[in-house]
Amino acid sequence: MSNDERYSTGLIIGRFNPPHLGHSFMIDWAAQRTDRLVVFVNTRDGELVPGYLRAQWLAELHPHVSVVEVRHNLENDFNNEELWAKWMLLLRSRWPHDTGPHVVFSSDAYIAELARRFDAQAVVVDAERVTVPISATQIREAPADHLDRLAPSVRAWVQANLL
Prior knowledge:
By secondary structure, the chain is an alpha/beta fold. Helix content is 37%, strand content 20%.
């Protein structure tokens, strides 16, 4: 995809547990290339950061996109066709537009299969995490070491709840 190509609708899907500046980079990058961008925040009971809070933070940080909390109890097994069918039924039920998505963005290569199932183009954004070198796993494992990679509202919560 060239940097000037635009899409009607785009999707980013993830746990964002917790959301960090790398996620914000990807959301802003994708939003510049779509007319309407939707961010699905996958959440289930028992996660470190409550899903509603992750969705709220992303909506506040990115008011120009639609943020949708997607509650579920599904596992991730990319080799299980029955599970894929359940995921696609859930995701399509939460998709807020009549058409699309036309493109699915992620920093992970697994997005190719999800995009194929949506009949959309897959665009991997900063796979090596060069622009913002962080992952949510790193933050969960050592939150005090990565506070500078969090937006102020997320940082305040992490400091109050995880340190």
